[in-house]
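User: I'm curious what two different proteins look like when written out as structure tokens. Can you demonstrate?

Assistant: Sure. I'll show them one after the other, since each token string lines up with its own sequence. Here's the first protein:
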Amino acid sequence: MSEAQLKTHGELVRRRAPGYGMPGELFGRADVFETDVDVFFHKHWILVGVTADVPEPGDVSTVDIGKASIIIARDDDENIRTYRNVCRHRGARLKGAGKSTVGMLVCPYHQWTYDLDGSLRHTTHMGKDFDVTCRSLIPVNTKIVGTHIFVCLDKNAPEDISRLEQTMAPRFAPYDLQHTKIAFEQEIIENGNWKLVIENNRECYHCQGTHPELTASFLPEDFGFCPENLSEESLVALEEYKSRNAACQASWERDGFVSETVEWLDEDAVTQFRTQQLVIAGAGESQTISTRVASTRLFGNLTRRDLGDTHLWTHNSWTHVMSDHAVISYIIPLAADRTLVRTKWLVHADAVEGVDYNVKDLTEVWLATNTQDKHLVEITHEGTQDPAYVPGVFSPFTEAYVDQFSRWYAARLSAHGIA
């Protein structure tokens, strides 16, 4: 092994200079990856789905996260429950990854049978003294915020999920996101490290050159910019941007929508998140090529189309909620150089395809953006594994959140005795 390969995970993290990218080994090494999964996907709250994944009693969705697997189920009382996907007999997986509908959860090995409330209902050949009451499925810590299903696999789940819940619940409430359906969903595998996927999502320095579909609905100043030596034309545009933002924010607040930016991102955060209500360019209605709504059936009982984009980041997800549809993406790391990205497009539960919306208008912006981001992550991962790679300096104007993510990553590892 080279000297670099012999460095511990903590040493690699400490080697990062403030304001610079991470060492390439943090993206490429298998031992680093295994630790990342354990810390950031088993001990932190992560997004694993939406309530529309299990719309009816008996619907289940199985999600694999590293060596762990969970079952999300809607029970007969329409409550959403989550369990470890492990039979309490000899550990067999109850369900394979994906969605299905069941009456009960039956182990395929010895047919131990569980109710959707997790209780063991049926076994054979176990004798009259066998106590089924202590063999229920293992529950998982779960928080539902809007439509978002967050879980923590650790028994000691971070308590600051309450910050996210208290911040986002009133923002999501007018949209009635639990009364939605999945109009389209996509899974792609990006051949890059999960941290590079998140870093790419945390900046829009690259957006104008690579995301023509996405930038049709964004105001360019929201991408970040260097305020030094701006032209007279740019200064005028900046003042117009500030005026438009202020007017939209004031209008939303008057109508009862909570729109102020909230950040819980720095080293003292455990459950990292950020939310902002972005003004949409053009017609100002939705993240579409035309910037008008893709679905004429708005969420909840909304009547305003021009509600901008309620944006939420966590360390494994990003969400965009407009008046007519929502785009929710989350990631699951598969290997040091492979990351699964799941994206779901939600519309009102009563919206009718071909009448209220068509899938092309609904999806074309983020289908294109996801494809473009996949390429960017992959070429960056390849470059960071090149022997010539030396971490570069971040732009303080457009990549501050990437630097912030790097600091948070180091802080969380330190909290677990690693960095």
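Here's a second, unrelated protein for contrast:
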Amino acid sequence: MSESNRVLTPSFNRSIEVEGRDERLGSDPGAILLREIMELTGLRRFFADKVHDPRRQEAIWYPIAELICTHILLIAQGWRHEQDANRLRHAPALGLAATETRGPTAADRGLPSQPTLSRGVDILARDENREILGEALTALAGTGFKAQRKGHRQRELTIDVDGLAFPVEGHQPGSAWNGHHGCRCYDPLVASSAELGSMLGGLMRPGNAGSAGSAKQFILDVVERAERHLCEIALVRLDAGFSSEALFATLEANGTPYIARLKANTKLDRESAPQRKRPRGRPPKEPRRWCVDLPYQAGSWSRPRRVVLVLKERPEDDGLDHFYLVTSIGPERMTAEQVLEAYRQRGNAESHMGELKEVCRPALSATNRPKSCYAQRPVTRAGQLSSKAFARNEVLLLLHQLAYQVLHIARTALEAARGEGISLHWLRRAVLVSGTRVVTGSRQLKVIIENSFADLWAQIIHRLYRWRWVPP
């Protein structure tokens, strides 16, 4: 019998005893479901084939693909991947899901320790490996989407790009005070798709980066990957902070359509003044909204561009609210009203970015901790060494986006089976986290979950196995 450790005899009912035992009990069976998604999408194999691991392969215990999968599973299940790694080393379901070991002996394989996972992040922080993580994220979104469409890409897809502030405690490398957000933070760029609910890319930036800082090359890279994995034509949707001649000209030269909000200015307001008048007659009970096309060229622009003036009545007085959109899409393809409707879908992308922050809870807190000794010898001038903390934080951001994307594929399957929308919060509570027990046999491992959760698992698996999976 397993050794027991009495934890509690509650005062409200003395017949209850709470004990801790060395049995294979856990609460994360969803990790096995998520690992199955990684196998179906080819994500684990993608990492094994693409990521460069400088370690001597014959001397390592945990391959790099296993380290990456462990990070993703811990994040997806709601754990602080490195902080909780040691305590969860022998969690049965997590161990079975993370390991590449086959057969019943997989139950004896523990998760990598916190230092091992941290060294894995250092490996991924290399420039070539960060590019592979970004490629993996877009490829994962494409594989999941094409599986539902029998391997076919979409004709057009809209990509939303925005900054997403992550507050930090202390003076982490690259963090800075951001007056707009009112905190010390990082301000990475995040690319997503409102139509698909997918994450497509991430770029780490300092907390005081301007809205459009580093955006041009990042957007071009995301567009190139999206058109390779997801669609034939990518349309970029931006807020007012990204409006610049350099970005517009680059997207036009690349043949990438865009819709962006423009910051109001006195010249534009002066030119649009004749159109900013309330229509004649008694106003209706419901406030009206209408759009007007304006030819306009800002002083910094190299040529005139199509600007859409959006006007809306205020119910409380006779005034009009207004704002401006600029687009490279001609009126023969989209009317002014259609341009506005396309831009309004940006709210869906913002809600998905909110889920990334609230559900996956990225903790971008890597800092420079140089070694004071190595191989039992003191390291001279250790204070000048750098662990590339900023690059590590970009890796952490991408790992959290990958975890989000794996969760989103599970959510998409369950939504298709149930015919209703669900949140990632609900998915985790109802499907991924429940009581579980692992029973080891001579030839088989049996993972037992609560029967009330089994029907949801069956719905997800049935839908996943019906889709056509093509590796990235």
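A detail about the second structure: The longest helix spans residues 389-418.
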